[in-house]
Amino acid sequence: MSPKSAGQAVKAGYKNIKVMLAGEPAWIKAGYPTYANYGFVCRGNNVIIDLRSAEKSTKARIPRAVNMPFADFDFTYEEIPIKAPVVLYSDNDKETMAALKILQEEGYKNVSLIEGGFLGWKRVGGNLNNGPIDTEVHWQRKLKEGEITLKDFKKAMKDPNYAIILDVRTRDEVKAGKLPMSQHIPLDELCKDMDRFSTKIVGAKVGEDGKKIYIHCTTGSRAEMAYKELKKRDFNAFYLIADVECDGSDCTIED
Predict the structure, then answer these.
(1) pTM to 2 decimals?
(2) What is the pLDDT of residues 224-246, one digit of tens each?
(3) In a shared domain, residues 103 and 158
(4) CB 3.0-4.6 Å disulfide test: which of 95, 113, 216, 245 passes with 70?
(5) Which residues touch 16 (CB under 8 Å, ≥6 apart)?
(6) Each residue of 64-89: pLDDT tens digit?
(7) CB-count exposure of residue 228 (10 Å: 0-12, 13-18, 19+)
């Protein structure tokens, strides 16, 4: 549960609320699955993989799904771009989890499942296609609303006047290191005290004329959450989707 969701739950009367500050990256790193929502499956810029046999996929499959039978997945998964958001499904839970483990071990960090697999998709009334199958992956990276390129982020790293760099990782993560020019507010503290944000961050001003704020975390998921909160209050905010690891002031950033 995110800090924002936790706040909403408290307002709704719930009392035993827990927040996983390390977020989705830590959940995934621990080997737990995540599930794609209906809208993301239908409209997201993703790669949908059908792990069932070609025969089953020909009869009925989720639209845009690429057929990669699990029996051959050890040899075919490399055709999936490693940075692509991947959605896996099958009619066999063990095979789906095994395919998820393969991708996670090979460095794929944005992999989710269809809850309930193929039958689960049918139960919720999801659209289906039939006929000739697609066995090749066609995917191109597209920036989401508010997302910046690594190239643009690096401009801010070189020139403090270009944009404010805001680090929303936890305090423990920052102890290991941080970008020398960045300012730091953990995501949970940011969400709890958003009204005082402009007094905490040097140079932050409301409105499009305010200085640009480039937000980062370890992968981008928390940065996107912070971006949404700041945009609600009219800050000139943007966020980075990238893997950020710091050892002291030495930081590696990979798109």
Answers:
(1) 0.63
(2) 999 999 999 999 999 999 999 99
(3) no
(4) 95
(5) none
(6) 999 999 999 999 999 999 989 999 99
(7) middle
